[in-house]
Write a structure and sequence with these properties.
mainly alpha; c-mor_Regulatory_Protein; 91 residues; Homeodomain-like_sf; Mor transcription activator domain-containing protein; YraL-like; elongated
Length: 91
């Protein structure tokens, strides 16, 4: 997200109206619902986590302990258990 000067994108009358509510402050204008993107849509993060979680589950199925996986992936044991539960559920 980048900042834009209000004077560059808004008419003066709208700027004056906004100044009644916040004078000199920062304001966030949310995207329209139809333009919103889901988490991870702009990056490879979602794909990376999917692959990582499958890998964790597969290693668990071969007998690697939750404690060992926790150390290997730098996650808490609870996080590893949550990943395993979700993988069991969604296969």
């Amino acid at each position: 997200m980048k900042y834009e000067k209000a004077q560059s994108v808004l008419p003066e009358c709208i700027i004056q109206e906004i100044q009644k509510y916040t004078d000199g402050g920062y304001i966030y204008i949310p995207r329209k619902n139809e333009n919103k993107k889901s988490w991870g849509e702009n990056t490879e993060t979602k794909k990376y986590l999917y692959i990582r979680n499958k890998e964790i589950f597969n290693k668990y199925c071969t007998g690697i302990s939750v404690k060992s996986l926790s150390k290997q992936y730098y996650l808490t044991e609870n996080s590893i258990r949550r990943i395993i539960r979700k993988q069991k559920k969604h296969g």
